[in-house]
Input
Amino acid sequence: MSAPYNPPSAPEARSSRITVPALAAMAREGRRIAMLTAYDASIAAVCDRAGVDVLLVGDSLGMVIQGRESTLPVSLPDVVYHTRCVAAGAARALVIADLPFGSYQASPEAAHSSAVAALQAGAQMVKLEGGAWLAPTVAFLVTRGIPVCGHVGLLPQSVNVLGGYRVQGKTADAAAALMEDARALVAAGAAMLVVECVPNAVGAALAAAAGVPVIGIGAGPSCSGQVLVIYDALGIQPGRAARFVRNFMAGSDGIEAAVAAYVAAVKDGSFPAPEHCF
Ligand code: KIV
Output
């Protein structure tokens, strides 16, 4: 019998970076997943030291880094640049790159070339916004070795269709459609889902049914983990914070302590509290 294949010991092969199967195991075992957005190497390193499991290079960078009104102006080169920065700073956390508006919707092939750029910049997974209509694209990517995180519920890239940033899945029909979207994405191979701004009951139903880790943002405490935009978690936002946000700088004596407080609150289930939920 031949010896098992040992991959070359490149730096990343020697590291103890969290993997996609490790996240699945955490969710299965009821260990909550702490995820934050990051856009640069220094913050990525702080998050890594503080125990964040997953760093999302979110297209929220359009709003919090670039000062734009929505995520729509973000380009693939923007995401690639920030992914390279985050990957350089994070040794342990799994890095997810958001595929930006216009870079994946037109065809599976377009999504593939965007996702390849993101993975070559240092991401281990890509995130796409949309429901069942994206299932063929998810299957196309997964078949070609690209892990995919779906994003359902409030879809910021569809703000012009939705007419604003509103809680989704509030009626029985809307909740059922959301569940079907999630089912189709997972059946196509999505290894994780983000669910944004839905009532607690919908977040809980999704987490119970999905069979993959479900990371909530404004989706209640029953998800497999939570994500926030890091600037929100650090109390840096120009206007009034969204209901699902908690400022972890309050009571912390620095950024790393605030991030550690976020990780602890996600892991022990104290965040989100009822006042952060819909
Ligand atoms: O872009 C982003 O930051 C996101 C999170 C809100 C989940 O998609």
